[in-house]
Design brief:
single chain; 164 residues; alpha/beta; Rossmann fold; two-stranded antiparallel sheet; 8 strands; 37% helix; globular
């Protein structure tokens, strides 16, 4: 069974989570890039509004062929209680038919469950079956702490068993 981890990361924290996760569960990973500039305070405010309104954005790659994968992780940072626009756009452009899906949300302090719930609402009509989800707090975490927290979640949730 092949596993793919799809994610978007503005601050690099979700990227660190996804890459650590990929190492721990022996998965491929692919970062989705938002082609709109999301850097800086003003752009972050606009990005939060886009997330809240679930506005679409231009992403790279535009879509991902999941044919070779049985298990797909989808990860997003929490913006205004919603997934990042790049992840909403990706979900709307992918075929999850017959795929088992594990969702994860990163967050400064709270709101991750709302992100997971919204991703699930969008993936299930596209044929995906959510089998597990988890949240990771990234606020005030040093790199080493975040890596250790991801490894602990992998162990506690027994995530490698899903990729067998």
């Amino acid at each position: 069974m092949k596993t793919m981890i799809l994610f978007y990361s503005r601050t690099r924290k979700t990227a660190l989570v996804a890459k650590t996760l990929a190492q721990e569960v022996n998965a491929d990973y692919l970062e989705i890039t938002d082609l709109n500039n999301r850097a800086g305070a003003l752009n972050y405010v606009k990005a939060s509004l886009d997330a809240f309104r679930e506005n679409k954005t231009f992403i790279n790659p535009e879509t991902v062929d999941l044919t070779d994968y049985d298990l797909v992780y989808v990860g997003s940072p929490t913006w205004a209680g919603k997934p990042a626009p790049a992840i909403i756009t990706l979900i709307d452009q992918c075929d999850f038919q017959g795929k088992d899906v594990i969702l994860f949300a990163t967050m400064g302090s709270s709101g991750g469950q709302k992100v997971i719930d919204r991703m699930k609402e969008k993936i299930e009509p596209r044929g995906g079956r959510m089998i597990k989800s988890f949240q990771i707090k990234t606020g005030n975490q040093k790199t080493e702490e975040l890596v250790e927290n991801v490894k602990e979640i992998v162990k506690e949730e027994d995530l490698p068993i899903y990729g067998i």
